Amino acid sequence: MTARTSLPVVLLHALPFSSAMWQAQATALRARGHTVVTPDQRGFGSTPLGAEPPSLDTVADDLAALLDAHGLPEVALAGCSMGGYVAMAFLRRHAHRVRALALLATRASADGPETAGERHRFADLMLDDTQRDQVVSRTTPLLLGATTRARNPHLIGQVMAMARAAPPEAVAWAQRAIAARPDSLGLLHATKVPALVVTGAEDELVAAEEAASMAYALPRGRLITLPATGHLQPLEAPKTVTDLLTTLLDDAATADRNR
């Protein structure tokens, strides 16, 4: 593909971060001629939270409106963790606009009652001024793999700073929206675009079996497990993630030529 015709890419960030977590990939993909859209989701970065009740469908429709504003009818869609949940919500509502899909550190299954309850309790703690700092300090480092925590203390500090900068109301809103999401395995079965599922070998939040089930569900899915990597793969293995996205975009270009 030429710079003029290369497939636009949307990179959706994890909770509780902003689009800044995709900086390395956005820079590299733009250098290859791709239009890259890195939206701040509701309440994060430069995007206001608004007054709508918590729903990933609302975030998906926000993205559709943003793509309309940029004149982008079709895109490659990549989401990490919460960004993956938003990607699947977008796919459910706007499937005709997705020509390639990358799901990183996320799961297609819905939360069971116990997990949903934990999310709601976490949301409540984020709104409690006496508990919030302790919760963030305890949970945020675990988003990184054990190897990353041991070898890259600078990244721990970077991730902690981003987490502390997130508005607590936005984090609570997002947790409640995630808790209400439906199961998406059937949706993935019907998704016939080139697709990639990426998991970290040291991810403490998403089990390897869950990632495998997503890749198996996708008719054109491929599963990649990154060694010595946890839940925040774009930050922990930036070049590898960039290379994987580049390959996915090349696959989408080949599919277009064959079509």
Sequence stretches where pLDDT stays below 50 over 5 or more residues: none
Overall strand count? 6
**Nearest-integer average pLDDT:** 95
Contiguous helical run count: 12
Oligomer: single chain
Q: How would you classify the helix and strand content by structural class?
A: alpha/beta
Q: What is the assigned CATH homologous superfamily?
A: Alpha/Beta hydrolase fold, catalytic domain
- Characterize the overall form: globular
Please write the string of helix (H) and strand (E) elements. Answer: EHEHEHEHHHHHHEHEHH
Q: What CATH architecture label applies?
A: 3-Layer(aba) Sandwich
What fraction of residues sit in β-strands? 5-15%
Helix content: 40-55%
The CATH topology is Rossmann fold
Structure description:
The protein is of the alpha/beta class and 259 residues long. The chain has a single domain (9-258), classed as Rossmann fold (3-Layer(aba) Sandwich). Helices cover 50% and strands 12% of the residues. It has helices at residues 23-31, 56-70, 82-94, 113-126, 132-139, 146-151, 153-165, 168-179, 185-189, 208-217, 233-236, 238-258; strands spanning 9-12, 36-37, 75-80, 98-104, 195-200, 221-226. The chain has a six-stranded parallel β-sheet with strand order 2-1-3-4-5-6, with helices on both faces. The protein is globular. The two termini are 15 Å apart.
Features:
alpha/beta, 259 residues, 12% strand, six-stranded parallel sheet, Rossmann fold, globular, 12 helices
Concise summary:
The protein is of the alpha/beta class and 259 residues long.
Helix/strand layout:
Blueprint: E1 9-12, H1 23-31, E2 36-37, H2 56-70, E3 75-80, H3 82-94, E4 98-104, H4 113-126, H5 132-139, H6 146-151, H7 153-165, H8 168-179, H9 185-189, E5 195-200, H10 208-217, E6 221-226, H11 233-236, H12 238-258
Parallel strand pairs: 1-2, 1-3, 3-4, 4-5, 5-6
Helix pairs in contact: 1-12, 2-3, 4-8
